Amino acid sequence: MKESSVLDDVFERFLKEAHVFKDREVLRHDYVPCQLPHRREQIRYIGEILAPALKGSRCSNILIYGKTGTGKTAVVKYVLSKLVNKAREFGDLVKACYVNCRSAGTEYRVLSILCDALGVKVPFTGLSVGEVFDRFKVGIDSNSLLFMVVLDEIDSLIKARGDLLLYELTRINEVLRHSKTSIVGISNDLRFKEFLDPRVLSSLSEEETVFRPYDATELQDILRDRAKSAFYDGVFYDGAISLCAALAAAEHGDARRALDLLRVAGELAEREGFEAIVEDHVRRAEKRIEHDRITEALRNLPSHSKIVLFSVFLLGKVKINSAITGDVYEIYCELCCQLGLTPLSQRRVSSLINELDVIGLLNSRVVSMGRYGRSKKIRLGITRSLIREVFTTDDRLRCLINYEPRCLVGTSSNRS
Ligand code: ADP
Ligand code: MG
What we know:
By secondary structure, this protein is of the alpha/beta class. It has three domains: 40-210, 3-Layer(aba) Sandwich (Rossmann fold), CATH 3.40.50.300; 214-298, Helicase, Ruva Protein, domain 3 (Orthogonal Bundle), CATH 1.10.8; 301-408, Orthogonal Bundle (Arc Repressor Mutant, subunit A). 52% of the residues lie in helices and 12% in strands. The protein is built from 18 helices and eight strands. The strands form two sheets. Strands 2-3-4-1-5 form a five-stranded parallel beta sheet, sandwiched between helices. It has a three-stranded antiparallel beta sheet with strand order 6-8-7. Adenosine-5'-diphosphate binds next to helix 3 and helix 12. Adenosine-5'-diphosphate (ADP) binds at residues 29, 31-33, 36-39, 66, 68-74, 222, 255-256, 259.
């Protein structure tokens, strides 16, 4: 069959046989549903804090925490859009701008998104952060406004860049003459406060609230609501929903995970021509998601971490089931040399090993070596085939897949 007729076939089959999804967008992460079960209290609390804006008063800054998938983003976007709509009835006094700090990445980008919401033009690059901040101040104050700044995933910006921007933002009302600003900060990391200067913390957290994880029953309610809009009537999915909710609750009550499971399970069912999503689809969806999560994590590792991981992989080839830091470091240096890179210090490599351990790509444990002190035993935390799969598509490391480290030549037989 020619390529075009293969595709015709795929499309025809899809149109004829796809009887599962009425609207798959409904199961995506950034979809804000019109109902948010089990978050009424939080919606009310945030609504009460932001309501003074309707009468032109500055509202308190709020800090919202909670693990991923506890509905923080959805609830804040929901409350904000209702607030802005309500405010329109009284003129254009309230403006709001939502920024995801993790995707924005830098203070410059965060500020230029805020400027954009005010109609202030900022070039893509070229100004200093201070200059952009000045334009932002002039922009807000050129009207009489209540400007709500939502800084979502603020923890990632603070950890990477420090809290200077937050410091400036929390003090901005002191210099504004016509307008006022309120900040809603959202953090996925519960330890986020430790990264803040006490002055910033106290003004940012005039109010604060924690979103606790959902339990399995709550997740079921959330999924059932979404499933009604996502799937055609008559598609059977009760068992699948219970399992998705149970799996997500067992992890950390993450609604995003539950929705992902249901979406991928639905896709499997559809592709296989089923009109029911059953538990087996969910089980396979779980495997698929896990596989994608790991390959994604592997692909995005910084080069030196990849080389460290690869060193452990090569050690495994000669059947050394668990290596010690020194072995890994020796191969690591050899690989760096092959690739024309300057190796990092052993101490630094040791901390890369810890990071890889935290994300589950390596397993390491400290063992006592008697009078030689202590060392770390290190094993791969994922399958060898997965590493091979990802690294064969890595332009830089591909050439090393079949590499035989000089320092291992001759060791395979006596160590296995
Ligand atoms: P967080 O920002 O805490 O990581 P999100 O608000 O992004 O979590 O929620 C993750 C996903 O779960 C989104 O698709 C969101 O619509 C959905 N979700 C979370 N809580 C609820 C809820 N109470 N009702 C319906 N959907 C929800
Ligand atoms: Mg979020």
